[in-house]
Each structure stands twice: as C-alpha cells, then as structure tokens.
Design brief:
This protein is α+β, with helices and mostly antiparallel strands. The protein has two helices and six strands, in the order βββαβαββ.
Length: about 140
C-alpha cells in the first residue's frame, strides 16, 4: 500500500489504543473499498456454527478473504463495525479476542453495536470494513 492511514487517540477522548483501536483514522488520497458485512456463512454453503466463538472464526476467515481479494492487510483497514446479538461483556470478550488476533496490532477506528437480530436467525455476529486499497 503506497498511501498511509494516520491513527489518532487525542487526549480529549478516551485512549482507545489501550484496547486495540483508534478513535480517529485519517486516510490520504487512495481508493476506499467498502466490504459488506461478513457473517458466519462460508463460500461452500456450510451452515453457521452454533457458538459465537466459532461464528467469529468464520467471520474472520471471510474478512481475511476480502482483504486477500483487495491485496490489502489489516493495516489498510480504516474502519470496522461489529454487530453482535446479545452484546454483553462476556460476548464482547469472545468476539473481540478473535478480532484483535485478526488485526495483528493494526488499530482501525472501530464501533461495536448490539443488535436484536442479523440476516439469519442463527447468526450472532457480523463485521463490515472500510479498507484503503492501492490505486
């Protein structure tokens, strides 16, 4: 990637860097790819697994597939939105542990959102990304 993303955690806001993300991400001139929300559906049609941890692993594999298709890495992610049904500290920890491992130290701007339902009754997590890509 030739362009860069500046990350900020200004003193007037809580230091999100301590938990693995940035309050502000500034992109420089480069195209952006908007990756649709990825859920625990596999390309081969395998049903979504039952547990949140297993679903998060499938979602992360799908996110990595999107990055691979874009020839990008976690460092190129500008923003992520993570939607979780039954969002509580315990479910947040399950999801975020796997998400942080996927990010490998990159700190995109990130929002976690508790929702009543997703696109299927068996789905517990969905993640969308904005990714800076090479021109």
């Amino acid at each position: 990637m030739s362009a860069s993303i500046d990350r900020m955690n200004p003193p007037a806001l809580p230091d999100a860097g301590n938990v693995g993300y940035s309050q502000i991400s500034i992109t420089h001139p480069a195209p952006l790819a908007f990756v649709s929300g990825q859920v625990a559906w596999s390309a081969d049609g395998t049903p979504a697994p039952a547990s949140l941890a297993e679903q998060t692993a499938v979602v992360v594999a799908n996110l990595q597939g999107a990055l691979d298709a874009l020839q990008a890495s976690p460092d190129d992610i500008v923003q992520m939105r993570i939607y979780v049904t039954d969002l509580r500290p315990e479910t947040q920890e399950i999801a975020m542990t796997e998400i942080m491992r996927f990010l490998r130290g990159a700190q995109p701007s990130l929002t976690g959102i508790g929702v009543a339902a997703l696109a299927g009754p068996d789905l517990q997590i969905e993640v969308e990304m904005v990714v800076q890509v090479a021109a």
